[in-house]
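Students often ask what a 'structure token' actually looks like in practice. Rather than answer in the abstract, let us consider PIG-L deacetylase family protein, a protein of 234 residues. Its sequence is given first.
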Amino acid sequence: MTGVTDVLVVAPHPDDDVIGCGGSIAKHVRDGARVTVVIVIGRERSALDDAVTDAEFAAETEAAAKALGVHRCIRFDEPSRDFTLSRRVHLNLVRVLREVRPQVVYLPHDNDDDVEHRMVHQLTTEALWMAQSEFFQEAGDRPMPAPRLVLGYEVWAPMARFQYAEDIDGQIGTKVEAMRAYVSQLRHAAWDEAIRGLARYRSAVSTGTGHAEVFQVLGLRTPPPAGGPGGVRD
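Now compare that with the structural description of the same chain:
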């Protein structure tokens, strides 16, 4: 993770980024990287939080991003349960990818239980290919270089197998603080305690530290040596 300056996190819904990789986000920020979060799908109201206005819910999202140190949070506000993988939404994400030009990309893993999580996984993998191609000039005419690392995170369905673990013991407090910014969501379930417990379990079976996040490795590229062939930064 050395030398990472820009990170992109693609989240299906508000708070998925916090649950899936909030500790890693805070760690990137600590190390000086700019983190951009794209939230694809808008709020889904429930009987438990119907009294919360859209403005209040947006403020929760902003507070969570601020707690993690996110540089920019972009909301596509696609409709929940009517979300489709259209050319428009693909190009919207391609446009962000070409602008941010991230070295590390986070997205939901490919077998999460929520159908919209799987759709956003597909959206992101396709948009990554599109953003690196010479086509789709309407989303920016400068193709992005391949990210060094593309990682799938877990939200609804913990992964049966993972290839990468990140020690977040120093960031678990920040991750829990960000989750607690979503006051409306804590009325559904004790997500703040759930993410702490999962991080403790993941550390026990991976890093051996106090808390960890685990990921599916979806893409890995070794960066060229500084000053060598192709070593000039894009």
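One point worth highlighting: Helices lie at 16-30, 54-68, 87-100, 115-132, 172-180, 183-186, 191-204. Ask yourself how you might have guessed this from the sequence alone, and why that guess would often be unreliable.
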